[in-house]
Amino acid sequence: IREHLVPDGEPLRADRRAAIGPRRGAVELDQDNVEAWLALVTTEQDPAQKRAYFRRILELDPDNALVWSGLSDAHIVLAEIGGPRRAEHMGLAKDAALRALRIDPGL
Fold this sequence. Notes:
Largest sheet: none
Shape: globular
Order of helices and strands: HHHHHH
Low-confidence stretches: 1-9, 11-20
Distance between the termini: 9 Å
Radius of gyration: 14 Å
Helix content: over 70%
Mean pLDDT: 79
């Protein structure tokens, strides 16, 4: 799933930087547009910001298994970064992954 939603360690290319502006604009125009949020999350490099975007998408579409999986990935990255909340992020990653599998067992 990560390869579909998160560019795995890939540096932000000029074309991806250029894509961020219009995607943020689309979200600003329609805060309830799931597709705009999904497009924005694919351009984001900061795992904490990705987590926030995934949470917003789940407010709008709580049964989206791929987004739950993406949220799990974001928590794993945050846990890998370390810090005092490492165990908390791993627990949240597990919870999100299990939720994704409950929604779509074939995931």
